[in-house]
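Posting this for the archive.
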Amino acid sequence: MVVLCGILVVTVMCCWLPISRAVPNIILIVADDLGWNDVGWNNANIKTPKMDDLASEGVTLANSYMQPVCSPSRSAILTGYYPFRIGMQEGPLSGLQPSGLPASLNLLSTKLKELGYNTEMVGKWHLGYCDWKYTPTYRGFDNFFGFYLGGQDYYTHESDEGGFDFRSNKDVDVETNTTYNTQLFTERAVKIIAEHDQVNPLFLYLTYNAAHTPLQVPDEYLDLYSGAGGTVNRRKFAAMVSAMDAGIGDIKDALTTYGMDDDTLIFFTSDNGGGLKGTVGGNNYPLRGGKGTLWEGGTKVPAFVWGEALETKGYKSEAMIHAVDWFPTIISAAGGTTDSGIDGVDQWATISKNEASKRTEFVYNIDETDSNNAAIRVGDYKLILGDPGNDKWQVDPLDSSAVEITGDSVDDVMLFNINDDPSETEDLSETEPRRIPRMRATLQNYKTALADPISRSRDTSGDPDNFGGVVTPGWCTADESFTPADYTSS
């Protein structure tokens, strides 16, 4: 019996020994509507000890940018293209929208699969579903566990636009009903890690819904903020972030348990800035503006990278990094190369070796049909054309009573030095006007590759009532012919 027990122990333990491989496992975690001031390393009022540890042990990205809203950010991450080049510039996709991220584009998942990765997606998709060809298992993912649309009840999984929205691969998964989705996503991620065949590297794209509305959270996390000030909504939002943090801690523990922690990279980012409406609960202080705006508060997000593959770690990187860079950076970390023509640049050496950023400029967005605005960063300077959106600063109400300060005025042309003035308090358009023509010309060059936005019409053929109350693909035809235009110098 003693010998048998010994054999059993050896057998179990050998399954947990790490397998040496030339390339790492990669976990890409995307939080939803998490603002600059919504994490512990930027705000001591927010309880995120697990992420704080990962950020401090790895590389904290202090100048990491996303798009102003979710679908465009996710498209940029997964393709390496600016959304305005692929028709994704206008905003989040809706439930009855007969379009999606062009099916002709190869995604990060497809590229990693070509490099030998097992590819898993858990969480929120929000890149189109009306044709199956828009959905994750047709876009390079071996498996999908999550939902298609932009938001849902965290317990019933009813979409905020109507209809039950939860799938295991292509199958409707009603067994998930009543279970908090942050918990569901964490448990599935842990299961994937536990069952992963370590002969092949793992790519896990984990897209939490937290802390997107509705503001729902188990009491055990809300109790963490029982003595905090501010509004109930702000405390609920913070508690939702803490619930996600606990889940990320469980994932890190699973990596250790199954011998994968020395061979895994974790990339973490929010998809855009925090929303500032009273019913939303996010906070970006001291940055100006929030989700849906071109201000820093809508686009500059908390992010970090963690893992033994980092040659230099335990530092804060001030390097300029944009959403489109995640595609080539992750491919580079995985030992691959990307095709020319995308907008992203490989920042793996920038992050892993603390080298200078490979980027000196980026486009916040170009939208000539919906918001009718644009913004560009060149060096330290940011040029905004048109109305960038809600321009208030909001002090964290957890720390004091809610304080909102609105800018004196918003002009059609504004210029800021983001290095000297990250809170965008001083418009330099009148004191440094000589910079504006050059920056306009640079922005105009980007506009030469501006694509028509994907269809924003509503097609009632996709009404969940037509499919037994379930959000269901199969009522449109995917665009498989789209090709991004090249830039032409003016």
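Residues 231 and 397 are 7 Å apart (CA to CA). DSSP finds eleven helices and 17 strands in the chain.
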